[in-house]
Amino acid sequence: MPSPGKVAAKEKFLAFLEGKSLRMTAQRMAIIDTVFNTEEHFTAEQLLEWARQKDKSVSRATVYRTLPLLTESGLVHEMDFGKDYKFYDPNYAEHPHHNHIICNDCEKIVEFESEKIERLESEISQKLGFSVKTQRLQITGACEQMKKSGNCKNRAIQCK
Amino acid sequence: MPSPGKVAAKEKFLAFLEGKSLRMTAQRMAIIDTVFNTEEHFTAEQLLEWARQKDKSVSRATVYRTLPLLTESGLVHEMDFGKDYKFYDPNYAEHPHHNHIICNDCEKIVEFESEKIERLESEISQKLGFSVKTQRLQITGACEQMKKSGNCKNRAIQCK
DNA sequence: GTGGGTGCAAAGTGTTTGCAAGTGT
DNA sequence: ACACTTGCAAACACTTTGCACCCAC
Questions:
Q1: Does a structural domain hold residue B137?
Q2: Which of A101, A104, A138 sits opposite B128 (nearest CB)?
């Protein structure tokens, strides 16, 4: 049961495809349905696995060819935490200003928003003559709660 | 002519090797000399090239086997900006609290320090239940000045 | 002498791509 | 029909590793 935001995001993406005169195929639909039906962050490999549950004919190549379309549309956010693979965030359209912390042990990704940090980043970048494109706050260490419970209640806490 | 800080860093690294009962070889010395004689950030490939100017027998494998020792010692900092390759920062011992911003166009890396951001990061991480070991903020963007002049005068500006 | 170190080339890993066959519009 | 899409497998780029030889201690 996708949230209203997800349904809207999916619609936007279909419009994006249409605008580029790209076709709707069974494989693409399986991938898109998957992406806009989850709140979770995922990797290319996970997306492949999930999409294949909907349509066994989905190939790894198609997943990799569809991901750039998703990020180009602005509805999915690509994240690189210095691991071997990239993560993708399907919540970007709904919360475009959030940051991420990834736990080195369990690889859980926690979202948070901080106006202060964002303001400071912009300020400093401007002083340095940069226009910011991406930012990554990387925390290494352990998430106590996740270690104990396997789940973090503070997920997506707001830190203004 | 290495700065006093670099000379000290090299000494520390030699002590680090000694402490682990690791040997000093001509190849390692060439690599170490290179690393602690530059202020610049570099990639594995660049380090190989530079080290080979000192000792032609240095192989790519040895560079890749030495880099983990350098980062493990805490004297060199590994950075991943989402490019295909990693960057290494030899200035970490002298300025352990700095962040980086990299230009997507020219790949120049600028260092900056910000107590405020660091404080906010600690605060937020704690709220999220993380026990922080290290934290780093990595920003990518476009550098207007570098685009125009090929050089950024604001390099290493202080932003308290 | 011996255990760590080295170069080489092959293997790994996540991602991209050439190609021939398939398919939405 | 035509151009876009697909799956497959080979190609890629960076990094790691197995192995036989080498050398610092």
A1: yes
A2: A101
Query: Which residue in the set A80, A103, A125 is minimally distant from B82, CB to CB?
Result: A80
Asked if B37 and B6 touch (Cβ cutoff 8 Å), the reply is yes
Number of domains in chain B: 2
Cα(A39)–Cα(A109) distance, integer angstroms: 12
CATH number for the domain including A78?
1.10.10.10
For B33, the token pair is 């000399």
Which tops the pLDDT comparison, B11 or A93?
A: B11
Taking the CA of residue A130 and the C1' sugar atom of nucleotide D19, their distance in angstroms comes to 49
Q: What is the token pair recorded at B131?
A: 């026990």
Buried b (16+ CB within 10 A) or exposed e, B82-117: beeeebbbbbbbeeeebbbbbbbeeebbbbbbbeeb
pLDDT in tens, B11-36: 999 999 999 999 999 999 999 999 99
Strand C contact nucleotides, protein CB < 7 Å: 4-9, 13-18, 23-25
Which of these, A97, A96, A109, lies nearest to A138 by C-alpha position? A109
- Nearest alpha carbon to residue A89 among A156, A139, A24: A156
Residue B126 domain-assigned? yes
Give me the half-sphere count of Cα atoms (radius 13 Å) on the Cβ side of residue A103: 22
Contact with chain B for residue A128, Cβ under 8 A: yes
CA dist B58 and B60 (Å) reads: 7
CA dist B49 and B43 (Å) reads: 10
Question: Residue A111: closest CA among chain B residues belongs to which residue?
Answer: B128
Where in the sequence is the domain holding B134, given as residue range(s)?
99-158
> Which residues, listed in sequence order, are joined to residue B143 by a DSSP beta bridge?
A130
Q: What does pTM read for this prediction?
A: 0.84
Q: Is A137 domain-assigned? A: yes
- Residue A94 resides in a domain: no
Element (H, E) at B111: strand B109-113
Per-residue pLDDT, A155: 40
